[in-house]
Amino acid sequence: MKKKIFHSLAALLLAGLTFTACSDFLEAENKSTGGQTADDIFGSDASTFLTAAYNSLKSIVYNPSLYQQGTDLYINTRGHDPGVYNQYSLTAEDGTVKNFYANLFKTINYANGVVAYAGEGSTLSQEARFLRNYAYYVMTQQFGSVPYVTSYINDANRSYPRTSLEEIYSSMIEDLTDLYNNSSLPAQSHNGRASKQAVAALLAKVYLSAGWDLDAPYSNIEQGTYTVNSTSRFASAAEWAEKAINGINLTMSYADKWSPYNEGNEEEIFSVQYERNGYPGDATSGGHSMQNNYGGYYGACTTSGMKNVGSDNAQSEKSMYLYDPEDLRYDATYMRIMYNGTITGSTADWGTQGYYAYYNMPKADLAKQGIGHQFFPYWVTEAEAEAEFAANKELYKQKNYLTTATAAILTLPNVVTYAFDADGNWTKEVKSVATYNIQVNNGACVKKFDDPSSAQVTDNNDYRDIVIMHVSDMYLIAAEAYLMAGQTAQALSKLNAVRNRAGLPSLNSFGAYEHNYFTTEGFQVRDIDVILDERARELYAEGHRWMDLRRTKQLVRYNVQFNPYVTNAKSMMDVTGSAYKLLRPIPSNEIEMNTAINKEDQNPGY
């Protein structure tokens, strides 16, 4: 029954019963359906409410602006404006934040509707309570204290005061613990449904976040230092992470884990489901666009045969040097070779040539296919690259291909680029990273989310399931929790399990860790940095980074050190220099409509 939830709601929405994206939390009337309310549409059918709750996750689990930008790993390239999220200049009127806030509360209200109509102890309500807690987890990480509502809103009440973080965390922990101990949820599910394993994983994240927020206050925000006043919540986070891991060893290769042909594998704990086959509407726009992010620009897909990527959230200088040469995750994360497409009229044979030839062309033919673009990581020397060109000269000839072959060695402080003529001969040029980043074909793109069946459209045609909790994430959650609980040996054990699967040696101590990226004098790598670097490699582009840095109190420190758009700590403050922007703003329209909060309740810095 993997995809039934998605298609049943898709058919409903395509019939015209859509909801507004803004302010559904406080507006019981649905203005986009001629004044109908949720009750008018769903009646008292709790299963339909649950379908709506699951489907609403699609509006909150993929948001690169809020999840990735303004960190150490991602930059906008090819002349793009850095953006308000990278520069920390967003305001309470920001439309993305406004919609995100409203969509989170939409999930919460749908879940509360299920509980109201199905009854507290029903299986439907148990799934809904998990979804409600997931939405509140994201709310606390992005916005901090928010109104905590567990009753279904179907009236005009507009008075919902903010609830303290301590109370929200306590309520979530109590509810999730009850779900784990007393519900009829299955032990595991790899088809996008709530399970006890997913409950344990969410409990681990909630306990870990509560430990940081409530028990480890800042000593110095700019330096990212803190004082641990209690380790009990961190110990509980480790305990629940172990339950989520459930004895699963990291024996599956990282490449197999993220293979488009291996969805729903044993490492998946919870995902948001997509399915192209049977989609009741226009399947060319019914998916998502994760595969169209995280890379440079490689030309219009209709004339180059390459995947359409827009130069948003490309590799930062730190992420270019994040991986060791032995790390198997590099090739599993990035598309290092983009194959060429043969001219047929004016376009490539989409899907079997060009970018997607990597997946769809027979391997014997792929070995003979011309190369469009090749990207070498920093550890490849010019001599090694040029030896490869000479040995495979035939693959770099122009022939009747759509794209003129190029190559680049992604090294610092300058990138070495190669251009090939019709005979496969090359010319070499050395360019600064800044110059390289404003040209086309500027860097390797992420392939973890590629859908080999994509149609030749710009976006929203990726039907890969979006995995939001998985086992190796839990290994690293456990490592962080053990570290904060003072259990260093256990923390290293979990960290090393992740490293070993990636082909890296074990660390005998956190102090034995060596990094390859550049830092300014005085930046000392601490134990928490070792775990954050491992999370950067293991979870690259999955949507964790901003919340990871906020949680671990490294947001200001990392932005000043690695974000080229934040020149000093004052850039993280508001115009008066009175407060750091450590959370997102509560949208101004929510403050205006909610009679229980006012401007003084706004998050610091806004």
Number of β-strand runs:
15
* Beta-strand content bin: 5-15%
**Helix fraction bin:** 25-40%
| Alpha-carbon distance between the two ends | 45 Å
| Strand line-up of the largest beta sheet | 9-10-11-12-13
**Unreliable parts:** 6-36
Query: What is the average of the pLDDT values?
Result: 91
Total of DSSP H or I helical runs spanning 4+ residues: 24
Task: State Rg.
Answer: 24 Å
Overview of this structure, please?
It is globular and about 70 Å long. The model is unreliable at 6-36 (pLDDT under 50). Helix 6 (95-118) packs antiparallel against helix 7 (123-143). The two termini are 45 Å apart. 49% of the residues are buried. With 606 residues, it is an alpha+beta fold. The chain has 24 helices and 15 strands. The strands form six sheets. It has a five-stranded mixed beta sheet with strand order 9-10-11-12-13. The protein has a two-stranded antiparallel sheet with strand order 1-2.
Outline of the structure:
With 606 residues, this protein is an alpha+beta fold. It is 38% helix and 9% strand.
Write the layout of secondary structure elements.
Blueprint: H1 4-14, E1 29-30, E2 36-37, H2 38-42, H3 46-56, H4 64-67, E3 74-75, H5 84-87, H6 95-118, H7 123-143, H8 165-182, H9 196-215, E4 218-220, E5 225-226, H10 232-245, H11 254-257, E6 268-272, H12 301-304, E7 314-315, H13 317-320, H14 329-333, E8 334-335, E9 337-339, H15 357-360, H16 363-366, E10 371-376, H17 382-391, E11 406-409, E12 414-420, E13 426-432, H18 433-436, E14 445-446, E15 466-470, H19 471-484, H20 488-501, H21 527-538, H22 545-551, H23 555-562, H24 588-593
Parallel strand pairs: 10-11
Antiparallel strand pairs: 1-2, 3-7, 4-5, 6-15, 8-14, 9-10, 11-12, 12-13
Helix pairs in contact: 1-3, 3-6, 3-7, 6-7, 7-8, 7-9, 8-9, 9-10, 9-19, 10-19, 19-20, 19-21
